[in-house]
Amino acid sequence: MKHMVSLLLFLSLFSSGPCRAQETPGHTIVLDEKGQPSSLQEVISPGPTLIIFWRLDSKPSREAVVHVYQNLARIQGKGIRPVAIATSPQRAAADFLRSQGIRMDSFYDPGGKVAATYELGYVYPSLLLLDENLRVQGQAEGGGASFDTHLSRLLERSGNSDHRPNWILGGALIVIAALTFALSR
Fold this sequence. Notes:
Layout: H1 2-12, E1 29-31, E2 37-39, H2 40-43, E3 49-54, H3 59-70, H4 72-77, E4 81-86, H5 90-99, E5 106-108, H6 113-117, E6 126-130, E7 136-141, H7 147-158, H8 166-184
Parallel strand pairs: 3-4, 4-5
Antiparallel strand pairs: 1-2, 3-6, 6-7
Helix pairs in contact: 1-8
């Protein structure tokens, strides 16, 4: 039995890790400003993409999308494409962006399916940093005074090309502990 536990723990190192998506993210559909559907895979650029999820009826969300736009040069300077995804009605969200002079790619997510796919919950605004394969590189939730801190941390993380998920280290430590225990008996 103890050998079976050790083997299972060892094999856990080579698993794909925790799956964050409830459905295949690339097949999740969003609508562009003209109401045309696009898959999330089509929205994501050939490099990393920073998605801001926001709601028109949330003041912190409106402030956050303006803040992202004000930091557009900083974000794009890191090779990241910013994208705004609103869960508010499409026309109203597009009108708000235009009234603020915000010119960045924006989409409408009916029912919040993209946010649900990545298990973000219902906190708006939320930031999600994805690589070109739709893998999560970082995320942050909430607006207000801490929003710039969240944004800065995600931008720092994007520059780390040697990003390793924490579950690898955790799994390695569990395996070492299990093997040490098994061998000591």
